[in-house]
Amino acid sequence: MKKPVILLALTASLLGALAGPALAAPRLGAQSIIVNPVPTTLQARVWVDRDPSGNGTPTYRVGEAITLYTSVNEDAYVYLFNVNPDGSTDQILPNRISGSNRVRAGQIRAFPAPSDRFTFDVAGPQGLNRVLVVASRRPLNLNELSTYSQGESFATVKPTTTPGFAQALSIVVNPVTQPVPQQDWTSDTASYTVRS
């Protein structure tokens, strides 16, 4: 089986707030790709195997395996993304291999899980990488954000830049047709550095 490649990075700085209706529109933040400005009791955490705190920036070499972890404080749907050094994004979860993206309160989920038939191997380019988790009390419709090619296990994220990804994700969590209440979702990021 082909091993998915993880490339995560964020360009040097993120641009200001996303355009959108009302003051409660999702916005970009310096430490996160998308931030919910409305207080919520839903909490999500994401971290990598070399930094359980999620606050550091451990280093991985190209070719090394990496495991991503996430947890939520209440039952939620979890969406994991990699933001690459060039600003493109990879969708980790949901995928067609790891099963449901529903995570129970207090459960720690590893990606890949020990039972998964694949590994995530770090690849270039070198630089600062970010993992983004978005947790939602209700399922999100990612049709405008990503698509599966025939026979592929992982979806391809359509926007190819960090601002494009953030804009598309803000539409997913704040859609016009079926809005997700702002208090029903949250996000978190972790980072790591890739070296050759």
UniProtKB/TrEMBL annotation:
Q: Which region is the signal sequence?
A: 1-24
Domain DUF4384 as annotated: residue spans: 59-139
Which Pfam families would you find in this protein's record?
DUF4384
Query: Is Signal one of the keywords UniProt gives this record?
Result: yes
Q: Which domain of life is it from?
A: Bacteria
Provide the alphabetized UniProt keywords: Signal
- Which PANTHER family does the UniProt entry name for this protein? S-LAYER-LIKE PROTEIN (PTHR36194)
Q: What protein does this entry describe? A: DUF4384 domain-containing protein
